[in-house]
Amino acid sequence: MVGANLKSETMKLIEKRSGTEAEMNAIIEQLCQPGGPGLSGNLVDSEGFPRADIDIPVVRAQRHRLDELKNDHKEVTEKINLNIQVLHSLRLTSTPKDSGVETNQNASVISADASASLQNLVLKDAPSANDVDMISSVPFAMVDEISDGSPAAEDGLQLGDQIVKFGNVKAGDSLLQRLASEALLNEGCPIPVIIMRQGALVNLMLTPRSWQGRGLLGCHFRIM
Prior knowledge:
The chain is an alpha+beta fold. The protein has six helices and five strands; from the N terminus they run ααααβαβαβββ. The protein has helices spanning 2-31, 56-93, 100-117, 129-134, 151-154, 175-185, and strands spanning 141-146, 162-166, 191-197, 200-206, 219-223.
């Protein structure tokens, strides 16, 4: 019974997290559209005057809302992970004579649902050699700018590196927005990244974080 209630609660949290991610992605897409201010771009021009090409109050409101959603996202993710751990614990401590089968099924179902629904959940380990073999080695973006002392530089990313996989982002549409979203959702957490450098695949772990410069990584990607 406990397992069933916990599963129901966790599924509701997953739905809440999905809604939070959808709202975050919508805001990120608006801020990062061509000519937009981005997630942390200046709101004043080179002469120090407010930019006339953007609605500054709206941008500030969107950025503030994004910070709120990011905090909500982190809190819900922590609750989901805790619930999944409890469900697995219930499965391991149960016996076949009681509700062990039911609990095992609940734990298995919730683990599968969480894996399918929480696509932005941070992977704990870097991709193995087998993982690399299974991923297409065709890059989709290249690092064309990187700042000294930035998180990206400190974590091993170099100018000219070609991105094959960035967390859950591999290829497709709206890549710049998806890359920005992946970094924002995983602020403070390591993201497994596969790059191509001088013709060889290399595994890195990049941790988006605040620093003295702009953005969470301090680099710029050019879509190839």
